[in-house]
Amino acid sequence: MFDPYIEAHELRALLVTKEIRPREAAEFFLARIERLNPKLGAFMTVTAERALADAARLESAGAAAAGAMPLYGVPYSLKDLTWTRDIRTTMGSRNFENFRPRADAELAVRLREAGGILLGKTTTPELGGRPTTEGGLCPPARNPWNPEFSAGGSSGGAAGQVAAGMGPLAEGTDGGGSIRIPAACCGVVGLKPSRGRISFAPVMGEGWAGFATEGPIARSVRDCALMLDVMAGPVVGDPYWAPPPRKPFVSAVQDRPQKLRVAVISESALGPVDAEARAALERACGVFRTMGHSIEPIQLDPAKRLVDYTRVAITAGIAAVPIKNPDAMDPVVRQAWEAGRGLSAADYLNAVARMHNASREIVQALAPYDATLSPTLPSAAPRLGLPTDNFEQWLYPFIQFTFPCNATGQPAFSLPNGFTAAGLPIGLQIIGRPAGELELIALAAAFEEAAPWRDRRPTLP
User: What are phi and psi of 68, to 5 degrees?
Assistant: First the structure.
């Protein structure tokens, strides 16, 4: 019927002009999920009945109403951490295996009202507590480029879905890199928005001391911007409000920034960066120089400054979840849960205060630069089945480039940036100024145009 890797904005154009019906789009991707999901573990729950009901509702809409919906007929998924009314939301945990929320998350409402078709809930490690998607209730999310490797985490199911052509759009969450990590592992585009850009209403005001946010995963910068326009915006009473953009985010894709000053962070004290990731970063810097931008390596190590405060914020956030049966938990996540339960209120508040002060200094140091580049990860995707002993010794070196943006609240993309010799994707992280998504989207789209990647696809049965 159509290419499973069709981008959301292209599919919407076919749907609005009635070349394809919403039901046909839904049935096409549901059939692909049925075929591929048992091999890849991207979906925890497939909402086929809901998808067909969404399609039927959209087909009864008039032409004017259809044209006004930015996602008219476009299928999407929600991560299994995100509340969906009367739809099972397990959070990857055996303790919540049959949990059905009493309300929708605000962003779930917005995506539905924008004309999207919900395909299902994507897999996550328990409570989003790993940078790979394995170890809890959900099946392991396998990398479409090589199923022996991880799709990353904690939004591994979401990124795997998009990379495998099981749907053009996916919502993810990011509390330490959980959108950008799987985007890098799977060779797709993931955007962590600024703090306060997307509301957690009505479930909570913030996640993990403001570290966590929700955001889009897609195959292009344009589609991420399109989805962000739908998801963004505060709800009255939210504790964080990002300033509203002066124009739609998707319109920034057409902008072409000139002669920017771009910083480069290529290493941290937390661990080595492998040769292929370093080479990919150097190639990307060459692309930016060709585009006319000034590239300046800087001596700044935000990961070293922030790691201790991050550990407290994340473990406390995990410990805040009420668990009735700790023995049923993933051992790795249980370690974090128990560590968080051992913190005092003073420990937590002191760490958060120090985190904010250090973050302020980091953002001020980066203020002269229009954007900052780094590897998304120090290496390509790891193999599934990571050892659970001494997990933290592996964790922070692996997320060394992603978690600082959660502390500072800056927006950050992970973009595809080539492949290893073994054929696994490599990611490039582009970090923007606080609340600077418009400028960040423009720069990311220009890089995407200068170094296109979308014609390369995984070989799937």
Answer: -85, -10
Alpha-carbon distance 388 to 371, whole Å? 36
Q: How far apart are CA 110 and CA 320, in angstroms?
A: 27
Confidence check: pLDDT of 80 > 80:
yes
Q: Which residues contact 150 (CB under 8 A, 6 or more apart)?
A: 132, 133, 134, 140, 141, 142, 143, 156, 185, 381, 382, 383, 384, 386
Please give the helix or strand (H or E) that residue 143 lies within, else none. strand 142-143
Q: Which token pair is 270?
A: 């937390």
Q: Taking Cα atoms as reference points, which of 91, 95, 100, 176 lies closest to residue 125?
A: 91
Q: Which helix (H) or strand (E) holds 137?
A: none
For the record, the structure tokens of 42 come out as 């991207």
Helix ranges (DSSP H) in 235-344: 275-290, 302-319, 331-341
Question: pLDDT-derived band of residue 390, with 50, 70 and 90 as boundaries?
Answer: confident
Residue 355 has a pLDDT of: 97
3 state SS of 212: coil
Measure the CA–CA gap between 328 and 41, rounded to whole angstroms.
21
CA–CA dist 166, 270 (Å, integer): 36
The alpha carbons of the chain give a radius of gyration, in whole angstroms, of 20
Where do the structural domains in the chain lie, given as residue ranges?
A: 8-450
CATH architecture of 8-450: Alpha-Beta Complex (3.90)
Phi and psi at 414, nearest 5°, equal -110, 125
- When pLDDT is averaged across residues 103-115 and rounded to a whole number, the result is 98
Q: Concatenated DSSP letters for 390-448? A: THHHHHHHHTTTTHHHHHHT--EEEEEEEE-TTS-EEEEEEE--TT-HHHHHHHHHHHH
Cα(443)–Cα(194) distance, rounded to whole angstroms? 16
Catalytic positions are 79, 154, 178
Cβ-Cβ contacts under 8 Å for 167 (sequence gap 6 or more): 29, 33, 75, 76, 77, 119, 161
DSSP string, 34-77: HHHHHHH--EEEE-HHHHHHHHHHHHTS-HHHHHH-TTTT-EEE
Cα–Cα distance between 401 and 281 in angstroms, integer? 13
| Tens-digit pLDDT profile for residues 392-412 | 889 999 999 999 999 999 999
Total-model pTM? 0.98
